[in-house]
Fold this sequence. Notes:
Mean pLDDT of chain A: 94
Number of helices of chain B: 9
Strand content of chain A: 15-25%
Largest sheet of chain B: 7 strands, mixed
Shape of chain A: elongated
Low-confidence stretches of chain B: none
Distance between the termini of chain B: 24 Å
Distance between the termini of chain A: 40 Å
Number of strands of chain B: 14
Helix content of chain B: 25-40%
Oligomer: heterodimer
Amino acid sequence: MNIHEYQGKEIIKKYGVAIQEGIVANTPDEAVEAAKKLTAQTGTKWHVVKAQVHAGGRGKGGGIKLAKNLDEVKDWASKIIGMTLVTKQTGADGKKVNSVLISQDVFYPGESEPKEYYMSVLLNRATGRFIIMYSTEGGMDIEEVAEKTPHLIFKEEIDPKVGLQQFQVRQIAFNLGVTGEAYKSMIKFVNALYSAFIDIDASMFEINPVLKTSDNKIIAVDAKVNLDDNALFRHPDLEVLRDTREEDPTEVEAAEHDLNYVKLDGNVGCMVNGAGLAMATMDIIKVSGGEPANFLDVGGTADANRVEQAFHIILKDPNVKAILVNIFGGIVRCDRVAQGIVDAYKNMGNITVPIIVRLQGTNAVEAKKIIDESGLKVFSAIELQEAADLVKKVLS
Amino acid sequence: MSVLVNKNSKILVQGFTGKEGTFHAEQMIAYGTNVVGGVTPGKGGQNHLGKPVFNTVEQAVKATGADVSIIFVPPPFAADSIMEAADAGIKLIVCITEGIPTKDMINVKEYIKSRNCRLIGPNCPGVITADEAKVGIMPGFVFKKGRIGIVSKSGTLTYEAADQVVKAGLGISSAIGIGGDPIIGTSTKEAVELFMNDPDTDGIVMIGEIGGGMEAEAARWIKEHGTKPVVGFIAGQTAPPGRRMGHAGAIVGGSDDTAAAKMRILKECGITVVVSPAEIGKTIAELIKVPA
């Protein structure tokens, strides 16, 4: 689960991570109030207005602006709130901005030059351990750094038996080249960040940039926090941070019905039992000349009710020109699923796109008979290749 | 004989008396699997499905000599169950449970390292040796006896592959569902290695998906040590980057873990890669029939 920058910053701050302070605002007037309050709290003269969306690359997309007075705060807030922000990570449709984080200006002049670093905590799947990945090249796209200057990316792997060790924390500070007061701040920063990560069952932290200010503080200027969905049962206080406005409304609705649905851009919808087979079904749609319109795993119980909900979800997408249902009936019997499909189809009454139903496994032959004798505009198949051929046929 | 389990395996069911445990234990017994009992804390001393129930895995192992355990325990308690089995001396632990927190699995992985055991899963369909033992949730009838081994991250896609292999005139020695989570006990490479060393297996179907580097690792191992034909399929060729496709581990995170990158690496390592999942059975049949 993703959360907003302001939520992520609030969490890590509780663990002692120094952050660029800010106050979230939902309207331009709230933004001005937030700016006044922030100046009172931190003494900041200028403010940064930051769009709160679940996507990176906000600055380049025009979602982060510097305001030098309260009029500019109001001006930028009214331009950013409600805008559709398009960044590298949002896709062409972009994301609607519902709120802004009014933040203190942290690039103020002082005794030393400000310097930006990169730091993330994530799972190294190859070793099954968490790593802290960091770089002297902050404020940039880390994929780009990895490609062009891989020697500037460092990693510390954490041994689960003993956790993060202080020699590793020192190594981070030395590799980043911080000294004096900044060194001490960095040690505190890394320790606090990692304990927050472990405590809240995060699956990823990305702090880009980590900033050394001109007065040698180390602070998190951004915070991308990703939580482990499987561990949310331990954190009811974090579960409520979910902002469903950031998700596709159809995906939210599907999740309410326990359907695992991901919307894609293609023209052939699909409904499958099992995640692996669902991905394979998307692939066979492509092989057959179509493009998958979605990923949808109906899970183990494909009864009439669930099938109807699934059809309903798939058909919300106007691009869908055909639907491929692919069920491998192991424990679940195909004839039951077939009956469920027929009932759902009749119940809905308004399906105009061709449907291809491929049922394989227990009672597949009986299932095909039920479909074939239903009199509906439904094509039946038993083998996967037959289904693929039918997709090709209905698309041509 | 085949791999991991056979008719002599003595199988214990953890989470035996729960809904899932009961349903699948019944199916396993009906298949002819040698289920010797189960564990549900607090229900020790009872009888369930005609088998004894124990409070702890340790007691169950002492009483029955069980060497394999299958886990149907809900996610918050599943990591604990795996470690209990490992501590009690179970040699093969199959964890079906989906949804175990990553942090718990990091600890499990570390814990079992120093115990003499193998973990399959979690979030997997289990292991089956055709006509001998079904330690999992797969439909047994699909896996007709033969000499092809299947390694897969997913459930229904494994059944699909097995069905195609059988329809192509071959059969299955064993099938291992290694699981779709980011951290799992047995990797693709380790499962492939088991089949390469199995005298009852002539060819291998290796089914991977987007996310992680396990297929590439297996492919490089096969290039060095492989002695049998391998057909590979990678699910998720059409998956967009950054989106999780059902399985917790099925997410494209970089340029190396896309389906296209994995398929390229597999090909480079001499594996016969199929683009269409409908051609898995046909392709392994062609490879097996060609005399070496």
